[in-house]
Amino acid sequence: MEDGEQFNYNICDSLNHQLHCIGKIDFPHCLFCPEKDETMHHYLLNCPQYTRERHILNNTLRRQASSIAFLLASKKAIDPLRRFINSTGRFKMTFGEIPLTK
Ligand SMILES: [Zn+2]
User: What distance in angstroms lies between residue 51's CA and the mean position of ligand 1's atoms?
Assistant: First the structure.
C-alpha cells in the first residue's frame, strides 16, 4: 500500500464510529446527525452536512465516487479524497491541512 492510501485509511480510522469501537470516545454518532453513527460510509457518502463538498468529489470521480473501496484503494482517488476531507474541515483539529500528493 502506498503512503497516500495508508494515510487516507488512518483518517477514516479517526471517525467517531471507529474511535468508539476502540473505546477512545463515548459516542459513535456523527456530530451533525445524532441518530447516525459516523462510519466511513456515512462520512464519505451520506452525511447531509457535506453535500456540497461531496458534489465536487462526484464531479471529479463520477460514478466511482460512490464506491468506498475505490475511494480508499485507488491511486486516482487519493488527491480528490484529500480535497474532500480538507474541504469538510472534519479533521482540521486532528491532522491540520492534509497535503496533496501532487
Ligand atoms: Zn452526519
Answer: 10
Instruction: Give the separation between CA 67 and CA 22, rounded to whole angstroms.
Output: 25
pLDDT at position 61, please? 97
Contacts of 31 (CB under 8 A, 6+ apart): 16, 38
For the stretch 4-23, pLDDT in tens is: 666 677 777 889 999 999 99
pLDDT tens column, 20-54:
999 999 999 999 999 999 999 999 999 999 999 99
Q: Ligand 1 centroid to 54 CA: how many Å?
A: 13
Burial 7-33 (b: 16+ CB within 10 A, else e): bbeebbeebbbbbbeeeeeeebebeee
**Cα 43 to middle of ligand 1, angstroms:** 6
